[in-house]
Design goal:
Number of strands: 0
Radius of gyration: 19 Å
Distance between the termini: 20 Å
Shape: globular
Strand content: under 5%
């Protein structure tokens, strides 16, 4: 999961100076603001976000913690995808008077970073999370369904990665036979279906030992940490921070990065990088208006999901 990759950064960053009620400060800064407040089209559509299980369900069993953490991670991916879909049609192309090559280049880079984040998220699941869950449960095929779902969209997802890296700014277009929309339409329904279904799979594990589940999750986290490298700071951390809405139900503590991480992103490894202006939130998780939107967005994908 996304948070696992960088939880190692949090382990040694506790400071005695931060002895304040961060939740109270958060409430003062953000109040009861919601993503839709006076911002028009935003990243909570067209694909709906996942309700966080722990908001409505109450249980001490670890299955609820695992499912809720994964739901937050999946919502990061959904918000970023929605931000791409909402803004892509409104970025001026080379034939438009308002065209700026840097706008297109930055947007293409945002798309590239999103694809890379999705790939890495699923790689962590397949290499660490799924095998550990199957071993712990004694059910070899326990996570086969989510794994097979990955296969339904991975190939076409790579098409978007190729488009984002090989397309020159003057070649970019949203619609048409060579447009980005057509590529996104080819996988987005399968991807988002998977993001929903996987949460339900985790919610169906309440019959397993809570303590062993927690230990298994921790072992997977340790293995996943070893797979990360600091170059991801420049691509994945800014994307996660910029799509983790802390005003969303239960989102105050996600992602579990050290308190200093948003500052390091804004003034350090993500400074002066126009890529992140396409994020739906600032690095502190505060929703903000999307940079390029119109009154409405035409999307040709089915968004008939059940949460």
């Amino acid at each position: 999961m996304l948070a696992i990759l960088f939880s190692m950064l949090a382990s040694d960053c506790q400071s005695p100076l931060i002895l304040i009620n961060l939740q109270a400060v958060f409430n003062i800064l953000y109040g009861n603001m919601t993503a839709q407040s006076n911002m028009g089209p935003w990243a909570d559509e067209p694909f709906p976000l996942i309700e966080i299980p722990s908001v409505k369900k109450k249980s001490d069993h670890f299955y609820l913690t695992a499912a809720s953490e994964m739901a937050h991670a999946h919502n990061v991916l959904i918000r970023s995808l929605n931000a791409i879909i909402q803004q892509g049609p409104h970025i001026p192309i080379s034939t438009d008077e308002q065209y700026e090559a840097t706008d297109v280049a930055d947007f293409l880079d945002y798309v590239r970073c999103w694809v890379k984040t999705v790939h890495h998220h699923h790689s962590v699941e397949e290499e660490f999370i799924f095998p550990e869950m199957a071993r712990f449960s004694g059910r070899p095929g326990l996570m086969d369904e989510p794994r097979h779902q990955h296969e339904t969209f991975q190939t076409v997802l790579k098409n978007l990665e190729s488009y984002s890296t090989s397309t020159k700014p003057e070649q970019y277009q949203w619609t048409g036979p060579h447009g980005m929309q057509q590529i996104i339409d080819s996988f987005s329904k399968d991807l988002t279906d998977h993001l929903y279904t996987e949460i339900q799979v985790l919610l169906n594990m309440g019959d397993l030992s809570s303590e062993e589940y927690k230990k298994t999750w921790a072992r997977a986290e340790v293995a996943a940490k070893a797979s990360g490298n600091l170059t991801l700071l420049f691509e994945m951390v800014p994307l996660v921070l910029g799509s983790a809405d802390k005003t969303f139900d239960g989102g105050e503590d996600f992602p579990p990065f050290p308190w200093i991480m948003p500052y390091l992103a804004k003034y350090g490894f993500a400074a002066r990088n126009g890529t992140w202006r396409f994020s739906p939130c600032d690095f502190w998780g505060k929703p903000r208006p999307l940079a390029f939107v119109g009154a409405s967005t035409s999307v040709t994908v089915s968004t008939d999901h059940k949460t």
